[in-house]
Design a protein that fits this description.
It is a single chain. The chain has helices at residues 23-36, 44-50, 110-128, 144-152, 176-181, 205-219, 227-235; strands at residues 4-9, 12-16, 61-70, 73-83, 88-96, 104-105, 108-109, 136-141, 156-157, 162-166, 184-194, 202-203, 243-244. The protein has 248 residues and is α+β, with helices and mostly antiparallel strands. The strands form three sheets. Strands 1, 2, 3, 4, 5, 8, 9, 10 and 11 form a nine-stranded mixed sheet that branches. A two-stranded antiparallel sheet has the order 6-7. The protein starts with a strand and ends with a strand.
Length: 248
């Protein structure tokens, strides 16, 4: 079966892959993932299985695996989901091969073109489900330099001490509880690209907590009583003012 073309801008194309049986593009995405995220290469077998499912394999989650092509060649990838209960998108992997990082789509580099296309898809997902709004797209951000780059492109840093769970490689017979016990944690920033249609330009402490729980509990599957989840919640300040942003 063929992949679904999500967007086409000249020689730049975004393909949606989940549940469509396009093994060539799926393997291209997984190969890029292993190349560009070597520290997470042990996730590839899980991702290959996930690629066989449709977008709505898990109730309330619409998942997307996108392959970016330039001149017909694999150039980048984006994986993300919409978590309906939280009214928020979660951005997972984003990468562009070094050879294509100077390619622009209009005035945007490929990475930000993907980021904004991803938010557009989350908005489309919410509309398809009949939701009145989304809060936006939440991103795990690896470094201060990348966070600063995202700030310049409209992403708001969230006031939370966040640690990304990194699960071990698969092992036959290991229970979920055993997997969680083996998780290590890596410090990250959290940022959000707002859905400007909402018309309420602020976030509260409860919203920030919900965004982080969408990652740690809804996506990664940690129990809410896990020490790292509780530490994250305790790090969120009782905001004396709302976190404001200016619609672009």
């Amino acid at each position: 079966m063929a992949s679904q073309l999500v967007r086409s801008e000249g020689d730049v194309k975004i393909w949606s892959l989940l549940g469509l049986g396009d093994s060539a593009r799926i393997e291209a995405l997984l190969s890029l993932y292993a190349e560009l995220f070597p520290q997470y290469a042990h996730y590839v077998p899980r991702m290959r299985r996930r690629a066989e499912y449709g977008e709505e394999h898990r109730a309330g989650h619409i998942v997307h695996y996108w392959l970016l092509e330039v001149d017909g060649q694999p150039a980048g990838l984006r994986t993300f989901r919409y978590v309906r209960e939280r009214r928020v998108g979660l951005a997972h992997a984003l990468a562009v091969k070094p050879a294509y990082r100077t390619v622009n789509v209009g005035e945007q580099r490929l990475s930000m073109f993907l980021v904004r296309a991803c938010l557009d898809q989350i908005i489309a997902d919410s509309e398809r489900l009949g939701d009145e709004f989304t809060f936006g797209m939440v991103n795990e951000v690896e470094s201060p330099n990348l966070m600063e780059h995202y700030r310049r492109n409209g992403i708001l840093e969230l006031p939370v001490k966040y640690m990304e769970p990194v699960f071990p490689g698969e092992h036959p017979g290991r229970t979920r509880a055993e997997e969680i016990a083996l998780v290590r944690f890596a410090p990250m920033f959290l940022g959000i690209l707002p859905d400007t249609r909402r018309g309420i330009p602020f976030y509260t402490s409860d919203m920030v907590a919900s965004f982080a729980l969408a990652f740690l509990v809804d996506h990664y599957g940690l129990p809410v009583e896990h020490p790292q989840v509780q530490s994250m919640l305790n790090s969120i300040p009782a905001l004396s003012r709302r976190i404001e942003w200016i619609p672009q």
